[in-house]
Design brief:
CATH superfamily of the largest domain: Zn peptidases
Strand order of the largest sheet: 1-2-4-3-5-8-6-7
Structural class: alpha/beta
Order of helices and strands: HHHHEEEHEHEEHHEHEEEHEEEEEEE
Number of helices: 10
Largest sheet: 8 strands, mixed
Number of domains: 2
Bound molecules: zinc ion
Number of strands: 17
CATH topology of the largest domain: Aminopeptidase
Oligomer: single chain
């Protein structure tokens, strides 16, 4: 009798624990605690005090306009750099925006960038970004009050807070903290930087673009401070026709590199944040809106947009006013700082693990030379000293998220017995000895 009970328990527990138990990393827990809602609140209030951060506004006034705003952002980043041992390289990334629909004459603009160089991979970077420019109701109004507390003071303050906290730590990959100019004039700063990085041979492994991450009260009355949206493109906009044909032929429409980044954010951020959910939206961006992640997608880099769950349109791109009892305008009083801090934490968790993980496996292939009952995957062996091995990720073709991970050790080929490649999507991810997992890569058919 006793034996039987034990046996049943054994079978039950074995199936329960067949998936590897993944622990929270104590350094990440420490980082989460250091990220402060108060510090984000102070940053947002400071940004609003510049009256407007419109990209065509005054650049010489010491207290008002986009020039004063970017000099303050740069000085803040420089201060964080000094406090953390001088490794943060801070600079203006200047460019001339040509005449366009929202640029009446050629205008000098500047992104603000702080770079934390990686210990191993200097030319391979992860980017966390937001736009620091703002606007009022009229896209060309460069003098009116445009507080931009949420759009995108929230994202800007999150990036500043991430630079403040993360610059105290070391990472294998380079992290760039980027504040874009010219977003509201047509994604000008991000388009400039994405092309510049591409042209200079720097590999951008992932972009977390934070745009409006502080509002929890929807214009329709729905209130939710426990969820955030991550938008990612399906078919990669940068790929040529023959690649798109292959993608549709083998059913990888739901597996762009940006979508792997989105899945990673959900899996890893939710591991640490209690009562906070990452909702993936399988769409490049919201209807009628654009964002600074898209120019990176256009250059072939994985990039996602992170945005609040519930928007309030009377608080975006509106002149500050009261009309029929409704308060319009993007004011600090409408920002939920605790919520914004949680989204900042989600960014920190993801950046920590990605920037310390091995390089995503290179040259991933799935063997399709003959009809067979097994599935064989191949890839190049990573060179990192602390490589532990690889996870094979598996899901049904109809499932949005990875359903199984099988750790297969330090090998560069693996055969899954009696698993038909026709019926599943497969991915491969490298893992180091500390449990840092790389982004998942999708094997392409090899004859
Ligand atoms: Zn925005």
């Amino acid at each position: 009798m006793k034996v039987k009970v034990f046996l049943i328990f054994f079978i039950f527990s074995a199936s329960l624990f067949s998936q590897p138990v993944i622990k929270r990393n104590p350094t990440v827990v420490e980082i989460i605690q250091r990220i402060s809602a108060d510090s984000i609140k102070r940053n947002i209030e400071r940004l609003v005090n510049f009256h407007t951060r419109h990209s065509l506004s005054d650049t010489t006034n010491p207290n008002r306009g986009i020039g004063a705003a970017r000099r303050w952002i740069k000085s803040e980043l420089e201060r964080y750099g000094k406090e953390s041992g001088g490794r943060l390289k801070v600079e203006f990334d200047e460019f001339i925006a040509p005449i366009g629909p929202r640029v009446p004459k050629p205008t000098k603009m500047a992104n603000v960038i702080a770079t934390l160089p990686g210990k191993i991979y200097k030319d391979k970077v992860y980017i966390v970004s937001a736009h620091y420019d703002s606007r009022s109701g009229d896209a060309l109004d460069s003098t009116g009050f445009a507080p931009g507390a949420n759009d995108d003071g929230s994202g800007t303050s999150a990036v500043l807070e991430l630079a403040r906290v993360l610059s105290r730590y070391e990472f294998d990959f380079t992290i760039m903290f980027v504040l874009f100019a010219g977003e509201e004039q047509g994604l000008l700063g991000s388009r400039h930087l994405a092309k510049k990085l591409k042209d200079s041979g720097i590999t951008v492994l992932g972009v977390l673009n934070n745009d409006i991450i502080g509002n929890t009260e929807g214009g329709n009355g729905v209130v939710d401070n426990t969820r955030v949206r991550v938008f990612s493109e399906g078919l990669p906009i940068s790929r040529d026709e023959s690649m798109l044909r292959l993608i549709t032929q083998v059913g990888l429409e739901n597996d762009s590199p940006s979508r792997q980044l989105a899945r990673y954010i959900k899996e890893v951020a939710e591991r640490y944040l209690d009562n906070f959910k990452v909702e993936l939206v399988f769409r490049r961006d919201r209807f009628l809106r654009g964002g600074d992640h898209t120019p990176f997608n256009e250059q072939g880099f994985p990039a996602v947009r992170i945005s609040e769950m519930n928007e309030n349109y009377s608080r975006q791109h509106q002149n500050v006013r009261v009309e029929k009892g409704i308060k319009y305008g993007d004011l600090p009083e409408f920002v939920d700082y605790g919520y914004c801090a949680n989204i900042t934490r989600a960014n920190a968790i993801v950046l920590y693990h990605l920037a310390n993980a091995p390089l995503p496996p290179q040259n991933p292939k799935i063997k399709v030379s003959e009809l067979e009952y097994d599935t064989t995957l191949k890839w190049d062996l990573n060179s990192e000293d602390d490589l532990m091995g690889y996870n094979i990720c598996i899901r049904e073709t109809t499932s949005p998220l990875w359903e199984r991970k099988i750790f297969v050790g330090k090998v560069n080929e693996f055969t899954l017995k009696n698993i038909s490649k026709d019926n599943f999507i497969f991915g491969i991810q490298a893992v180091d000895l500390d449990g840092n997992e790389s982004l998942v890569v999708i094997p392409l058919p090899e004859r």
